[in-house]
Design goal:
Blueprint lengths: L10 E9 L6 E7 L10 E2 L2 E3 L7 H13 L7 E5 L3 E2 L5 E9 L12 E8 H6 L4 E7 L2 E10 L2 E3 L1 H14 L12 E3 L4 H19 L1
Parallel strand pairs: 1-7, 9-12
Antiparallel strand pairs: 1-4, 2-3, 2-8, 5-7, 6-7, 9-10, 10-11
């Protein structure tokens, strides 16, 4: 679980922090600051890229979570990690699952975040998604649900990780099949252009 990595700019880790409410646990999510250049205003799990001082990717997840929301590493009981997932920019992300006490004194780092909020797992299990997103990938496509929770849009990579977690550990059967409309991002010109730029950047890194 405490996976080690060598120096590599494309490794990252996130923390899926669950509150210790046995009846109805929640997951802690963040809203990225609007002034950021990348993914501004989007909902995400706390976490970030591996840095040289990190002895493991679990350390990366805990360090970044502390920097972003003020959660001390010793407040987290890390119980497992999910399979490595890849963003459309080519970043390899290891998600860690941890349990934390309820009502922790968390504070968003204004340099990175606009908000911290919690979503009950029961909300995701009801699967009242607003749409299903389908993203192009080499050799096929990946999908993820999109949800609206109290004005926060939870979609894309974050929603995909929530599906992976709930299907693997919570016994849910969330799938692409759903009455909600599908959005094919392969027809979105802005997304396609950004994906081309990301793939070109990833190719340059491999050549270094």
């Amino acid at each position: 679980m405490n996976q080690k990595r060598g120096s590599h700019p494309k490794h990252a880790a996130v923390l899926l922090a669950l509150t210790s409410n046995e009846q109805n646990p929640s997951v802690i999510l963040t809203k990225r600051a609007m002034h950021l250049n990348n993914h501004s205003g989007e909902v995400s799990l706390p976490g970030g890229k591996w840095e040289d001082q990190d002895e493991s990717l679990m350390r990366t997840a805990l360090r970044e979570t502390h920097e972003e929301i003020g959660m001390q590493p010793d407040w987290v009981d890390v119980i497992c990690n999910l399979p490595v997932a890849h963003t459309w920019q080519g970043i390899e992300v290891t998600p860690y699952v941890g349990v934390v006490a309820e009502n922790l004194p968390l504070q968003p780092n204004p340099d990175e975040l606009d908000a911290i909020f919690e979503v009950p797992l029961s909300f995701f299990l009801k699967d009242q998604r607003t749409r299903t997103d389908v993203f192009p990938r080499e050799g096929g496509a990946v999908w993820s649900p999109a949800y609206d929770y109290q004005g926060y849009e939870i979609w894309g990579f974050t929603a995909r990780l929530m599906v992976e977690f709930l299907n693997q550990f919570w016994g849910s059967e969330l799938s692409r099949t759903n009455p909600a409309r599908e959005k094919d991002w392969s027809k979105d010109p802005i997304y396609i252009e950004r994906r081309k730029q990301a793939l070109a950047a990833a190719a340059r890194v491999k050549q270094q």
